[in-house]
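Need tokens for this chain, all 556 residues.
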Amino acid sequence: MRYNCRQSILNTSRICYIFYMSNTAPSPDHISVDCCIIGAGPAGLAAALAFSKEVKKRNKIKTVLVIDKAPLPSAHTLSGAVMSRAAMKHLEQIIENPEYFKQIQSIARPVQHDWMHFLAPYTGIRVPGKILPPNLQHHNDMIVQAGKLTDILHSACEAAGIHIYNGVSVSDFIMKNGIVEALIIPEAGRDKNRRKKSSFKSAEIIKAETFIFAEGTLGTLSEKLISQCSLANPVQPQLYSIGVKQLIRLSPKSTLRPDTAIHSLGYPLPVTVFGGGFLYALENNMAAVGLLIGLDYKIKNLNPVHELERFKSHPHIARLIDGHKVVLCGAKTTPEGGYYSLPVPGYGNVLIAGDAGGFMNLFMFKGLHLAIASGIAAGKSSAHHQEQQLVLNYMHTLSKMGVSRELYKGRNFRQIFRSPLGFLAGAPLSLLQHLIPFPLSLHKDRDSPLTRTQKNNYHGMNREEFVFHSGTRHEEDSLSHIVITDSALCRTCIQLKKNTCLHFCPGKVYSLNNDGTIQIQHVNCLHDKTCLVKCPYDNIEWTPPGDGGGPRYAGM
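Here are the structure tokens for all 556 residues:
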């Protein structure tokens, strides 16, 4: 039951089946279901499983449809990932067929060796995890490849009779009287000159009683809902980081022991830049290495791919991965504002789950378990929509599952690193952040003044190679899904030497033309959406491409 791109929407037999199940007359341009979920990552698939199981417990028949812009299952799924054991308990409760849960157990490896490295340019200190504060310990966690987890959840959904459409982008919604009536699948199949191609498809709509937006960080629909319905905290804006990651094959001479989780603070990032590295030993002689960088940095020419290569070259890391071969690369943004930056997680008949809702615990350096928990809470709440107020029930369920309490423990963690001393002051003070009786102030990432430049001396992979190893594909002659709103602002940005878009994008989407304008290479886009956060003038629009394009993170 895996469907190819937008053709799945037009498959008459399957559409008629859905309409038959929902007692709605078929129409060539719209579909009606009981619950529609946008995003087939861990949060969205967990929501679908929870919804399905909940309605079956009550002997009801309801249809649930999951829509994802990725052309294949897990193609856009990217995470570290060290996962809390709590996620395993949550998944066991919602997966009907125990064989799928056994598959998840087989890929989730308990952390056996846990280390924190505090790095200076040529040296560092290695500290065993067991003597670190509890929030930095990972010996009770699981190392898992998020892509493989997503593939298993995808199969479990199919076995439960849940419909999943891959390669379908949803760009907008129709709201009336405080209720989202329908989602809009935009037309697709136009070339750069807006002429119809042979693959042209008309716009379509999807109607549902409830909607769950689980699109990931900076989701198009969830961001519009948050803005249009004033759901964000006006004095505590959300903060973001950019994570760049490589899946590598270790050489026989590697000294990295199996089931090891290593985290680092310090080099290659300056003390004023929040972030850190990670290195996780996976099965079959594979490892995941990556770097997380807070997007409030003040360096004009900071390049995340270069920084990852510098991290890998540090003596403490290089000796562990000596002789490695890069298999896959990827990048994504992550919400990191924490408890005080959470928006109201829904409105009317819509709920927001996973990274789209800011459910990331930076205090404990993990969020996959919260994505799963929030998805389950959203699915259960949607199943009871007609009996209880949806958003309040969702918030109550999040509280019962411990999500709110967990995030509250680290409520000022990210904020404490905003001092001029950065890491030097933030690291020790973070242990006391929970004692501060009020929220520390924040400003948007793009409002950080760009006052510094740095030398980019490095040896290793460049951004072109990074894109190649991500498997990213878009149609060359298609309309760009990235648009600069006002080209005059770009000229102002260049004159003031703020043109960070030439550096911050891990896919090198933006380059400078000879006439001083910015050229967009949309085919390089990794869907990380850093541009939506870091452009100093908020001058970039990003919408999901309609061609099923993007990275191919198989196994990441």
